[in-house]
Amino acid sequence: MVKREKLVWVLATSMALATVGCTTTEEVDDEGNDGSAPEFADGQGQAPWDATPAAAYPEGPFGTTEGQVIGNVSFIGYYSFVTSNALDRIELADFYNPTGDAVYPAEHPYAGRALPKVLVLTRSAVWCPPCNQEAAETPEHRAAYGDDVMFITTLFDDGNPNDPGRADVDDLTGWGQDYDPDYPITLDPDSSVGNLYPSGSIPGLVIIRTSDMRMVQFHNGLTFDPNSGALDPRFWDTVDDIIAGI
Question: pTM for the complete prediction?
């Protein structure tokens, strides 16, 4: 419980700084805290796994529209809630696969697995029924593609549809407990990818070709028909084409 409270405090602090700018205080509370942000414990989000040296990534210019390279965004989240409940910083450079046949290095949480050919960023909210349905169905659909396809889900809003607030660590942990995702689930406290979804659609998806980290398609709505369960060809045909090198 102490660790969870600490992580929530750290995330809340980082979000506040992003909103009002970097401020400090020298006031000391009853527990001896002076207001400075505490560091994460080992393995708890202190830096990307390969922060030194910096991971390889395509050079800019970066953009926010189809055909452009997405910047190397960094998130806070779980690489795989199935295997670990440790929070990490997850960056898009983790999944850059210029040769198409690279594997994650030994130090990585996915060590030995093949890097994906397709990366899908998913925008979700705790209060959104289609988002929850998507989360329940995604592992089954993705399993057919093995390591060729990797999803990263980002929770933007919390559990109150009438007055949504920014999702926090508790929301993220609850999402993991509900759906046991074997792919990254994250928070984006600086809303670094919020502008990729101009329509405001939830769920919203961005399909990225990992050989050059270019955004190939923006997709609003589910990746399957909720009535029949059939996969949506508008989404999955694009995924198939990228894997085939088309």
Answer: 0.75
